[in-house]
Structure formats: structure tokens, C-alpha cells
Design goal:
- By secondary structure, this protein is α/β, with parallel strands linked by helices.
- Helix 1 packs across helix 2 and helix 2 crosses helix 3.
């Protein structure tokens, strides 16, 4: 199953590497296609533009209209792949607030330092990211978005509970308004 392969490659690398994923697909299914095919047909297709949850553009758009908020993104993986995923909403972020790193868990302290004089709300589907972030800054507000296979497979972390648990990004508006 491709979903299982996706999770396996993500776990092995610590992030989702689309080229590595394609290489494994080629090996498993004994496909004889070159990497250019993958780049042109898969990575440059609309398939990755649809990987954001359906309400993401609407909610980020609403939040971006509030001039008191600085909306950013903290994502893990390869720049070109992650930027392609957020292509339709990238105009809602200032370039200084797009934080994409191969191993985002290793860059948490950098992110928190960057925004140290601001109230910071961090939304993530990975508990380890939220836990480590809270260890750097106790005042940080952590929001666990519990959806998707990764989030649902997460194991609880002893002595850690996120400040909020949500199942849809729509719920973030109420949290911000509090």
C-alpha cells in the first residue's frame, strides 16, 4: 500500500523525501522509468497542490487579514517539495515567516529564538515537535492537530499534554481569539 510506503520512507529519513519515495516505488513495482518522469509527471503535477487540508487556504486567508497576527509556516522536508505544497497560499506569508527545514525537529530552538519577543502559537501534527518546543519556551502555546495517519499513530509523551488538541484548522480561530 502506498500510504504505508509513504509512512515508512518518512520514518526512515525523518521527513518525507519525494525522490526517495519514488525510488522505492520503482524498486517495489520494478518500474523502468527515469527520474525525469517523476519530476515532470508527479512533482510538477497538481497532486501536491491538493495535499493541504481543504480548509487550510480559507483559514490561513482569514487569519492573514488580521494585521495583529504574523502568520508563518514551520515545515519539515525538502524546500522544493514543501514550497510546491503551499504554492496556492504562499502569498499569505511574508518570506521571512516561511521556515522549511529538512529536519525541523533540529531547528525548533532557532524558530523559537526568531520569535522570542512575540506570543507564539505552534500547530503541529507531531507531538515530539510540540513537546520539544514547549521545553524551549514554557510560554509557547502548543496545538496538536490530531488528524492524518501520522497524528493518529502518535504515542502519548509522558508528562506532556499540548495546550490544545484540535481535529480541524478551523478550531484555531477560537484559540487565537482567547
Amino acid at each position: 500500500d502506498l500510504n504505508d510506503l509513504y509512512l515508512k520512507t518518512r520514518e526512515e529519513a525523518g521527513y518525507f523525501g519525494p525522490k526517495m519515495f519514488f525510488k522505492k516505488i520503482k524498486e517495489i513495482y520494478k518500474l523502468e522509468v527515469d527520474d525525469d518522469f517523476f519530476q515532470k509527471v508527479v512533482l510538477e503535477s497538481e497532486i501536491f497542490l491538493e495535499k493541504l487540508y481543504e480548509e487550510t487556504e480559507e483559514i490561513i486567508g482569514k487569519l492573514a487579514k488580521n494585521k495583529e497576527l504574523t502568520i508563518g509556516i514551520f515545515s519539515g522536508g525538502e524546500d522544493d517539495f514543501q514550497l510546491r505544497k503551499i504554492k496556492n497560499i504562499s502569498h499569505l506569508f511574508h518570506k521571512d515567516h516561511i521556515n522549511i527545514h529538512i529536519y525541523k525537529v533540529k531547528r525548533i530552538s532557532d524558530l523559537i529564538s526568531k520569535y522570542k519577543n512575540q506570543k507564539l502559537i505552534l500547530v503541529d501534527d507531531i507531538l515530539r515537535i510540540l513537546h520539544k518546543s514547549k521545553n524551549f519556551d514554557k510560554n509557547l502555546i502548543t496545538v496538536w492537530i490530531k488528524r492524518g495517519r501520522l497524528a493518529l499513530a502518535e504515542q502519548k509523551i509522558k508528562n506532556f499534554k499540548p495546550d490544545y488538541e484540535i481535529s480541524s484548522l478551523r478550531e484555531i480561530i477560537d484559540i487565537i481569539e482567547k
